[in-house]
Amino acid sequence: MQSRTASQKTTLPFQTLSALRAACLSLPESDHNISTAIAKREAKLTKPLGSLGRLEELVSWLGQWQKKSSPQLKHVQITIFAGNHGVTKHGVSPWPSNVTAQMVENFKSKGAAINQLAAHAQANLDVISLNNLKPTADFTTQPAMTETEFLDAVSIGFQSVSPNLDLFCPGEMGIGNTTPAAALSYAFFGGKIHHWVGAGTGINKAGIKRKSDVISQALQHHHHTLNDPLLVAQSLGGFELAAIMGAVLAARHHNIPVLLDGFICTAAVLPLLKLNSKALDHTRLSHCSAEKGHQRLAKEMALNPLLHLGLRLGEGSGAALAIPLLRAALACHTQMATFEEASISQKTSS
Ligand SMILES: O=C(O)c1ccc[n+]([C@@H]2O[C@H](COP(=O)([O-])O)[C@@H](O)[C@H]2O)c1
Ligand SMILES: Cc1cc2nc[nH]c2cc1C
């Protein structure tokens, strides 16, 4: 496993918000000729058309973005982005912030759930600690990050994605990060605060009330930023969320399909969607988290989760669990016999 503390300042791709905005607005498209080729083969395979349900669509999605009519999953990367949060001083998480660094060590020594799930999925796992795990500012009174801090974090995420990948899965670790995730969701979709605020790592009712109050205060403080998705991400997000946003943007520029993880990961890429309604076409949502706001967020973002397992761990765990599903989909598409090869009669009427 590679682990980085990601504080280098040289040749970062985004020196200004307008450079980042331009990269979000001008995005490559998938190759629709590939989906036609894949659909043609799918129709010849020894099963009623459509009978493998979403597995069929997943093969087409992988192929369109990889630009391969026989998509592959040789180079699969899970990267955990770790960061800390100034809002934790308001008691929004039951865990102390030093658990973020302790879990980073646990990832490095292969003791965490994601280490087992990544190995099972035959995926490479890296961890990147943002800002040396120094926390964001308390966003109830200041932007979570300065413009430079935000751009650096986005740039580090962007640069972390190697162009040769077949699939990229961002994960995250950050005590307190369900609060910025809920704040971003509420800032972009409104509704009632309590729709977005859940127990995270297990906070009690009083803690959930504190989280809601913190978010309400933060939105009042940053109301002037709410019409600009990048300023919202800078003001209400976090280092690891910004890095995830940058990484998912990079994957798009390299035509790499992405599996999104849980509530925090989904909220992290929401600014991309708000800037460009096609920005997440190269992604699929691996699972629906048990965290309260995730189902609503997925619906608002028109993301249809592949798995419902009651997970609420983060680390990229849901994405890791969906990788074997993608491998199964590819195995069927590439290795099944056609009707002709297996001498099976085709259907006689429609
Ligand atoms: O992925 C999810 O949906 C998810 C839901 C709840 C908690 N988490 C993880 O728990 C941590 C944040 O929870 P909290 O209570 O400290 O805000 C962070 O490290 C996340 O990876 C993750
Ligand atoms: C132990 C622990 C492991 C985690 N993994 C992701 N978030 C986490 C939060 C805690 C508290």
Question: Could you explain how this protein is built, in words?
Answer:
Keywords: Cobalamin biosynthesis, Glycosyltransferase, Transferase. Belongs to the CobT family. Its EC number is 2.4.2.21. This protein is α/β, with parallel strands linked by helices and 350 residues long. The protein has two domains: 39 residues, no CATH class; 259 residues, 3-Layer(aba) Sandwich (Rossmann fold), CATH 3.40.50. Helices cover 46% and strands 8% of the residues. The strands form two sheets. The chain has a four-stranded parallel sheet, sandwiched between helices. Strands 5-6 form a two-stranded parallel sheet. Strand 5, helix 11 and strand 6 form a beta-alpha-beta unit. Helix 3 crosses helix 13, helix 6 packs across helix 10 and helix 7 packs antiparallel against helix 9. The radius of gyration is 20 Å and the shape is elongated. The model has no long low-confidence stretch (mean pLDDT 97). The structure holds nicotinate mononucleotide (NCN) and 5,6-dimethylbenzimidazole. The site of nicotinate mononucleotide has 24 residues, from strand 4, helix 7 and helix 11. Nicotinate mononucleotide (NCN) binds next to strand 4, helix 7 and helix 11.
